[in-house]
Amino acid sequence: MSPTRAEPDVSFLLDHSSHVLRTRMAAALAEIGLTARMHCVLVHALEEERTQIQLAEIGDMDKTTMVVTVDALEAAGLAERKPSATDRRARVIAVTEKGAEVAKQSQRIVDGVHKAVLDAVPNEDREVFLRVMNGLVSGHLATPVETSQPARRARQSNK
Amino acid sequence: MSPTRAEPDVSFLLDHSSHVLRTRMAAALAEIGLTARMHCVLVHALEEERTQIQLAEIGDMDKTTMVVTVDALEAAGLAERKPSATDRRARVIAVTEKGAEVAKQSQRIVDGVHKAVLDAVPNEDREVFLRVMNGLVSGHLATPVETSQPARRARQSNK
DNA sequence: TATTGTTATACTCTATAACTATA
DNA sequence: TATAGTTATAGAGTATAACAATA
């Protein structure tokens, strides 16, 4: 029996590939003035009437991060905050006509970047690759480990 | 021919899986008081005599980040800065006896976390998965896109 | 002149706290 | 009392600038 070998460096493979893909996506979307977050919000706000909180959950961002993202979309004239018809606390994100057009463009861009990755995978391996990744993401690598201490210490309350 | 469908969300697959794996690795290494960076430096400093700059390149970190990492290793008694025999500007990172033991432990931890991931991949798919990931990392997703504007604006010089 | 390593700190990102309006 | 959204800002991470020592 051959000696024990180090396991393949799965961390490097996933970290590096996701990092490079992220820079590529950011660069591609930047050409039409969007960030990945703006694209995400735009697309999901188009699907149906959604409030900021709902969109924040979908995009896995904090509600305060959501505020910044919506500010950017409003400043670019791509979306508007509208009062919710059913909850006067909440604001629905309405995509403008221009926003809808940009969303179509950005979706094409995103699809293009993803297609380029998949085209780089040999035909006969593509299905297995996607199956394995989907399996990991919904199974063994579905849930982040809870860090015993939060990402940041609770802020000093100085009242 | 069926209508065009959105491409699989490769960004999500890679981002999510790498993020979860990263939290898991951080949690596992934290149990012996290491960060991933400390582990990385420890292991590569053990392989052969290396200076901070060389170790920084291997771990893809800034030299100032390297300073912090080596500070942590020294504080934990796992490594020491030694003057280089050939370049009086440079410092070689010497792993202590305790550091070497910890490195063995941390390597076992890292291998264990990686093995758990691969064990979650069906036997018959594992080889293809690794082949594809290695292919992407050394091919289509080898090099990050150069951001036209740097990650951070140049700092104001106030001399 | 260029490079190693250091210190100090500015910049970005993100999340906590506190608040207002409403449920 | 709890929740949606906002503002202000603290905390963490990281990289730039400047510097001393040396090449």
UniProtKB/TrEMBL annotation, chains A, B:
InterPro entries: HTH_MarR-typ, MarR/SlyA-like, WH-like_DNA-bd_sf, WH_DNA-bd_sf. Residues 7-138 form the HTH marR-type domain. It comes from the Bacteria. It holds the Pfam family MarR_2. Keywords: DNA-binding. SUPFAM superfamilies: Winged helix' DNA-binding domain. This is DNA-binding transcriptional regulator, MarR family. It comes from Actinokineospora alba.
